[in-house]
């Protein structure tokens, strides 16, 4: 899950949060129900664009436990009643029936309109995911929920880019944090395909279906950079297109150079061990690069360009940092997107005290100062935290830092960047294959079921935003 080794003190504090959260209101079985009874829960308003909205929820058997602390899955129907007035829900949308993992997309919505809705299975309203610091299903309105569609980005649509991270090919247990015995991981159902492969394949299918022309993966494509896992990641990503043209990869701390027999066949790393990632994914001999994407300058950073075991803060080598600032200075006005694994800083993060969730603070301040001098930079995409979080820092207020939820576990998806001549939109999508939806719902039970508190995104703007910006020079 989280790609670091937090301090014991921080984890003791977090365990208190988890323990306290278990006392918060929850949907519980109040009496014995008929064997065909179902309860719809975990309602989430995932995606809102100017014309669409995506809702997901889960149906289970009340009074049961699947061993992870959730109800046993119960297949059911799914429908959403919605409209522009709370007393007139005149439209209806249906999801696939016969599944407990519901995914319903509303289409044909009008920009700038408020919609009211209720989602239900077997005539029962779905209860929303409870977030301590936000609202998962939209704005409550009596027994309904509401959301407002944005205006589209100004101008003509040019192209779309899927932003993703944390595929972790080769991982077998999700949700392990530190060595504390009460932090238990979640494994795939026996006999099912490995969950990193399920989620990575669903990523490619949905990114293409959503119209992505290009894909940027911001690190941790592997569990621990084993050659077989990197090869598996590349074989899946190659189904999207060609490395270096259609998709680009930045290195994460899990992809760093490693020592030991499994890595002996790879070339030497610059810091320690053998660098299998560079053998698999570098097209320039470096793990950082600048690339022209239809006129957009895309800069990929290696945010663990340093010695270490991957559990501490990220960092750029002095050589990479000098190259990065020189690259920005070449054309400060050019529209520029930067992506790398570690965020510059992490806001609203209970585990930020560990100091392992972001880049070295001094380097981050230098980067933000460089962004202030480079007006063309508009977006910094990061992973590592496995959550959706939008941040804007005072040192560089024109730049949005977008952390994106992990591909490999709940919420399980990617952010689609839609570039227009007059701005851009960022929308997070959960992957929607049957196996992906099943694993996403299963892996939400990480951290004793409290993982959505950290990962979904507390605000709608953590998952969906529209920004006006002059990008008319792009093709």
Automatic annotation (TrEMBL):
UniProt xrefs under SUPFAM superfamilies: Metallo-dependent phosphatases (SSF56300), Purple acid phosphatase, N-terminal domain (SSF49363)
GO molecular function, a single term: acid phosphatase activity
Purple acid phosphatase N-terminal domain: residues covered: 41-124
Signal peptide residues on this chain, from the entry's feature table: 1-34
Keyword tags: Signal
Composition bias type Polar residues, residue spans: 449-467
Location of region: Disordered: 449-475
Name of the protein described by the UniProt record: Purple acid phosphatase N-terminal domain-containing protein
Protein source organism: Actinomadura citrea
């Amino acid at each position: 899950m989280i790609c670091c080794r937090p301090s014991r003190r921080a984890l003791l504090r977090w365990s208190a949060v988890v323990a306290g959260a278990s006392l918060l209101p929850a949907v519980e079985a109040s009496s014995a129900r008929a064997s065909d009874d179902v309860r719809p829960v975990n309602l989430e308003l995932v995606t809102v664009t100017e014309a669409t909205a995506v809702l997901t929820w889960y149906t289970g058997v009340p009074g049961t436990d699947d061993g992870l602390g959730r109800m046993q899955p119960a297949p059911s129907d799914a429908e959403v009643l919605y409209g522009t007035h709370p007393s007139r829900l005149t439209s209806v949308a249906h999801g696939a029936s016969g599944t407990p993992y519901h995914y319903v997309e509303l289409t044909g919505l009008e920009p700038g309109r408020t919609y009211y809705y209720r989602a239900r299975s077997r005539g029962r309203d779905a209860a929303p995911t409870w977030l301590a610091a936000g609202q998962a299903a939209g704005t409550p309105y009596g027994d309904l929920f509401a959301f407002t569609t944005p205006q589209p980005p100004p101008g003509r649509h040019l192209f779309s880019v899927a932003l993703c991270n944390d595929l972790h090919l080769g991982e077998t247990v999700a949700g392990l944090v530190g060595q504390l015995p009460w932090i238990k991981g979640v494994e795939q159902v026996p006999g099912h395909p490995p969950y990193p492969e399920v989620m990575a394949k669903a990523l490619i299918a949905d990114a293409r279906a959503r119209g992505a022309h290009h894909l940027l993966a911001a690190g941790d494509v592997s569990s621990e950079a084993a050659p077989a896992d990197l090869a598996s990641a590349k074989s899946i990503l190659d189904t999207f297109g060609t490395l270096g043209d259609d998709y680009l990869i930045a290195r994460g701390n899990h992809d760093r150079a490693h020592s030991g027999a499994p890595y002996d066949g790879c070339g030497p790393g610059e810091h320690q061990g053998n660098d299998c990632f560079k053998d698999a994914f570098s097209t320039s001999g470096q793990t950082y690069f600048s690339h022209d994407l239809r006129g957009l300058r895309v800069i990929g950073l290696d945010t663990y360009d340093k010695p270490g075991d991957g559990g501490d803060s990220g960092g750029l080598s002095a050589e990479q940092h000098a190259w990065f600032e020189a690259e920005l200075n070449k054309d400060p006005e050019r529209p520029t997107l930067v992506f790398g694994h570690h965020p510059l800083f992490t806001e609203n993060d209970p585990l930020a005290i560990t100091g392992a969730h972001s880049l070295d603070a001094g380097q981050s301040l230098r980067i933000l100062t460089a962004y202030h001098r480079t007006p063309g930079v508009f977006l910094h995409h990061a992973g590592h935290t496995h959550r959706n979080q939008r941040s804007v820092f005072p040192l560089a207020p024109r730049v949005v830092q977008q952390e994106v939820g992990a591909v490999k576990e709940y919420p399980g998806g990617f952010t689609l960047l839609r570039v227009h001549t007059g701005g851009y939109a960022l929308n997070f999508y959960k992957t929607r294959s049957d196996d992906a939806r099943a694993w996403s719902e299963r892996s939400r039970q990480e951290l004793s079921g409290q993982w959505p508190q950290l990962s979904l995104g507390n605000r709608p703007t953590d998952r969906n935003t529209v920004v006006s910006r002059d990008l008319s020079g792009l093709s």
